[in-house]
Write a structure and sequence with these properties.
single chain; alpha/beta; Rossmann fold; 2 domains; 5-stranded parallel beta sheet; about 10% strand; transferase; Depp_CoAkinase; kinase activity; Dephospho-CoA kinase; coenzyme a biosynthesis
Length: about 200
Amino acid sequence: MPLIALTGGIASGKSTIAARLAEHGAVIVDADRIVRDVQAPGSPVLDELAAAFGDDVIAEDGSLNRVALGAKVFGDRTQLDRLNAIVHPAVRDESARRFAAAFAADADAVVVYDVPLLVEARADDPWDLIVVADAPADLRARRLVELRGLTEDEARARLASQVSDDDRRALADVVIDTSVSLDRTRAQTDALWERVRPR
């Protein structure tokens, strides 16, 4: 019953790896989805965000106005820390609940936590394995421009706002090179599955 953390910088190919592991039968727990779930309309987290950052971070339909919140925290370390102090504990509790549910349903499950902010928030958790999706910053910037429609400057700003690739690699038990073809990325992921799959 391994619990695996899968991380990587923006546009590093993490989703490709997660999808391949899911095809093999891994249970994927998506940190980004949990963030959205714990910030759902009517949630305690959303109430805390409004109290901390102002009612304008709540949209007319009662959902989180991510653009308004982003404008308040982007580039401001103090405000970002304040945001993280509200969101991270809720995400930690909900992810632990989902891990436990997966193992309760199948004691031999391979549970993969797809988590962008591992280095920033969850590095010291008791993972059985840390897997890093890795591609050079120039390639990831190009992917952001070509696949997500960002400008070159926007792409560079996104990359610059994240921890360094060296910091991620320093935590890795397994590094999957995603700068190669899709087939080779999948082959590396298949090799990882052979290592962790239930016997």
